[in-house]
Structures are given as structure tokens and as C-alpha cells.
Write a structure and sequence with these properties.
Distance between the termini: 59 Å
CATH class of the largest domain: Alpha Beta
Strand order of the largest sheet: 10-9-8-11-12-14-13
Strand content: 25-35%
Radius of gyration: 24 Å
Largest sheet: 7 strands, mixed
Structural class: alpha/beta
Mean pLDDT: 87
Number of domains: 2
CATH topology of the largest domain: Rossmann fold
CATH architecture of the largest domain: 3-Layer(aba) Sandwich
Length: 308
């Protein structure tokens, strides 16, 4: 099925009248773009922003508009005529009905990391001429495909540090990519946890796809709020390598707990850090007993590795 995408430009003061007009002619769903709303959101004291994508920042310069999607049929064209008769600045575009939930998969291809790893989407083929360690992945709705700098940096460190019989902790596991990669590289076991149930489900699917389910324990918990869950987690340790790829504020809050979870001479690998906050996390790692801290950076993102 095809749709008519209709974008109607208007002054901010008239957006409410425009919405009322659309409802009056029988159109109940719309998308509103307003630069002032974006600026209010950006300046809100409710959130602490580490990083804002440059494409998102362009929203502060947009002209106010309302977008609707009309069926490309007689009724849709009647609605379009009514809109054009009342508003002069109107853009239209024909768009096809698509499987938005799965279309992104066509852009996710096998990704080679370092000398030994390759992340292979579960629906893709890969000619493993170099005999790499293959991690089969379906990220679902969770973060962690290997394409983002933060994940790549962790995987590069994993390739260097993981040894046979290592115990791994994947804190905030997302798709499970970091812990599963460590298992594929030879680690003995991995404990995964995340606060998001969908990430837990995705990780379980991916551990099974990589035949490492028998080496994995997966928990849905927030260790900052649930002391009993944390005790259960560290009871599986101590861990030779702890991964945490989140954001600096959460990493810093979790640091004392991650320190407890890390074995003597073990490694803590922190990622999800923008360059501007690198020293802040380094100082926190030092305060919690980590030394020999090294930094890898890629396109403004940093991964820090410290030894306990």
C-alpha cells in the first residue's frame, strides 16, 4: 500500500489551529515539528546530556510544521485537496508501506573486529577465509551490534585480554555482544545483567545462537537499587574481566560495585564515554583501586581499561 506524506508548514502561533483543522476534516493523527519545543527539551534541567548527535541539533533551526499520512486513494486525495485549499505551503511525497521493524537489517552486515573477531548478523552469510571467531548476533531492540565506536573499542580490548578460563561480567549487557564475544574467544563463563527485560530476552537468544548458553547466566536487575541481586551476581565471581558500556554517570555510580565484582589483577573495561568526560571516569577508577589505566579512542568516544 502507498501513502501520501503531507507536510504543512505554519507559524508556531498557528500550530494549534492547524491541528484543530485536521481533526475537523477527519484526520486524527499527526506529527508536529517545532524548534522551540526542541530547545525547551534540550535546556531542561531534568536531563544531563553527554552527547547530542549533530543531526538532532539541526532540529533547533527547523521551520514549524505538521506532518500527516493519507491513504493514496479517493478519500486521501479529498483530504489533500482540503488541506491545499486552506494552506499554501504544503509538501507532498508518495511513500510505500514497509516493514519498518525489519528493514534496518539490510544495512547490518558482518563486521570484522581486530584480527580475530567477526560479528555476523544471524540472517547474513560470511565467508570465513581467515578463520576468525564468529559471533552470531541478532540485536533485536537492544544496543550492541559492533557498529558503534563504544562497542568496537570494547571488542578490541576483549580480543587482547580474554584468556581461557576467564570469568566475565557483562554489566548492562544490551544484546549480550561483549560477553558472548568473550566466550567465543575462550572465556570460561559469563554473567550478564541489564535493567531492560527485552535486552535479557535478546541476550538469551544470542547465547543460544552461539552455543554458549551453558556458560551463561542472565539476570534482569538494577544493582544500584537491588542489593540482594548484586550479592547473587558477585557470588558467581570474582570476575577476571568486567565490561560496562553505558554512560559516564551510570558507570561512576556503579564503580564501587564493579570494583567489588572484579578479581584481584582483573580488568575493568569502561566504554560509552565521550572524550570530554574521560578524566572524570579515570579519576573515579583510581579512587576505587584501579591502576595501569589505558585509553583507546575512536571518533570522540573513549574506552578505559584499568587493572585492579
Amino acid at each position: 500500500m502507498e501513502w501520501i506524506k503531507v507536510k504543512i508548514y505554519s507559524d508556531k502561533e498557528n500550530l494549534e489551529n492547524l491541528q484543530s483543522f485536521l481533526i475537523d476534516i477527519g484526520i486524527n493523527g499527526c506529527t508536529i515539528e517545532d524548534s522551540e519545543d526542541f530547545l525547551d527539551f534540550l535546556e531542561s534541567k531534568t536531563f544531563n546530556w553527554d552527547y547530542i548527535d549533530e543531526n538532532l541539533m539541526k532540529l533547533k533551526d527547523i521551520k514549524s510544521s505538521v506532518t500527516v499520512y493519507l491513504s493514496d486513494n479517493e478519500q486521501g486525495n479529498i483530504h489533500l485537496s482540503l488541506i491545499k485549499s486552506s494552506y499554501t505551503e504544503v509538501e507532498t511525497e508518495i511513500v510505500s508501506d514497509q516493514d519498518w521493524a525489519n528493514n534496518w537489517k539490510q544495512y547490518f552486515k558482518p563486521i570484522e573486529i581486530g584480527d580475530r573477531l567477526v560479528i555476523k548478523p544471524s540472517w547474513e552469510e560470511y565467508d570465513n577465509k581467515e578463520n576468525r571467531n564468529v559471533v552470531i548476533l541478532d540485536p533485536g531492540n537492544s544496543f550492541g551490534t559492533g557498529t558503534h565506536e563504544t562497542t568496537r573499542l570494547c571488542l578490541m580490548q576483549s580480543e587482547k585480554l580474554v584468556k581461557k578460563n576467564d570469568k566475565i561480567l557483562d554489566a548492562g549487557c544490551g544484546s549480550g555482544i561483549l560477553g558472548i564475544s568473550a566466550l567465543v574467544l575462550g572465556a570460561k563463563s559469563c554473567v550478564f545483567f541489564d535493567i531492560d527485560q527485552s535486552s535479557i530476552e535478546t541476550t538469551n537468544v544470542n547465547t543460544e545462537a552461539n552455543n554458549v548458553k551453558n556458560k551463561s547466566l542472565v539476570y534482569c536487575t538494577d544493582i544500584l537499587k537491588d542489593e540482594e541481586s548484586f550479592k547473587l551476581l558477585i557470588g558467581q565471581g570474582p570476575f577476571n574481566i568486567v565490561f560496562v558500556n553505558i554512560v559516564p554517570d551510570v558507570i561512576n555510580a556503579m564503580m564501587p560495585l564493579l570494583t567489588q565484582a572484579t578479581d584481584k589483577d582483573g580488568y575493568l573495561i569502561c566504554s560509552g564515554i565521550i572524550k570530554e568526560r574521560e578524566n572524570e571516569v579515570i579519576d573515579n577508577m583510581k579512587r576505587n583501586g584501579f591502576s595501569q589505566i589505558t585509553s583507546l579512542d575512536l571518533n570522540g568516544w573513549v574506552a578505559l581499561t584499568g587493572r585492579k
